[in-house]
Amino acid sequence: AVDLLKSVENDPVVKSRSNQAGVNMELANIYLNTGNYEKAIVHASKAVDLFKPGLINQLYAQVSLFFAFFRNNDFKNADKVLRSANNHRLIKSQQDQLMVSRLQLLRAAIAFKSGKNDECMLILRENGEEAREKEGWLPGYFLLELLVLLEKKSFDLAFYRIEAFRKMLERSSAYKDEKRILAITKILRMIVRDDGDFHKISPANKDIKLLAEGKDQYYWNPEGYEVIRFDEWFTRKCSEQLQKRIA
């Protein structure tokens, strides 16, 4: 991909802004998947600048740039990019409802990462119906809502929502064989069953290990609907509980 970028930047036969933008997008995706978020930021930024303003490819590039900043824990710049994406022509005119739903999920994720659980839940509830109609980002809405409920120790409501989530997965052919999300659902039920005592679920638990490895059928997509990576959230909660016990 790096060699290809050199070609589209220097070879007069293939040199063009659109080719350069496309290759930079591919590089941003590669660096996101390999955890090199600083380089992902560089290439996603170039793609945003190179794609023609107002078209769908520029919007996709903005989403990639959002994730590059978000995964690098730079939430200030991630929020700035998200605000810009929400001003995109296709979003303001509501022409791409699936993308509108996705951007609202990302907005809720920013609130969650900022510790604003009530704001996060409000965003999810205001946009949940639209997500339910489109389905593409519905698992993300469910997952983030469940994390908020567990953060707030609302275990009874979380149990009800997990069951709704499980039934939704069973009904949808798109997710019935997706092992990562099925493993997450299984662990969520265990957390609720134990009233949020994370240490009753061993870090050596098979599903936790597979989620952490993120390989093959348990692959974690850094630009997917699991915006808050579940195994990392689980590990953080275990650490927080351990610190409280020591204190």
Provide tags for this entry.
13 helices, mainly alpha, globular, 247 residues
What's the short story on this structure?
By secondary structure, the chain is mostly helical.
Folded structure, characterized:
The protein has helices at 2-10, 17-33, 37-50, 56-71, 75-86, 89-92, 97-113, 117-134, 138-151, 155-171, 179-193, 206-213, 230-246. It is mainly α. Helix 5 packs antiparallel against helix 7. The radius of gyration is 19 Å and the shape is globular. The termini are far apart. The model has no long low-confidence stretch (mean pLDDT 91).
Proportion of helical residues = over 70%
Mean pLDDT: 91
Percentage of β-strand residues: under 5%
Order of helices and strands: HHHHHHHHHHHHH
Query: How many individual helices?
Result: 13
Shape by Cα distribution: globular
> How does the major sheet shape up?
none
The rounded Rg comes to 19 Å
Strand-helix topology:
Layout lengths: L1 H9 L6 H17 L3 H14 L5 H16 L3 H12 L2 H4 L4 H17 L3 H18 L3 H14 L3 H17 L7 H15 L12 H8 L16 H17 L1
Helix pairs in contact: 1-2, 2-3, 2-4, 3-4, 4-5, 5-7, 7-8, 7-9, 8-9, 9-10, 10-11, 11-12
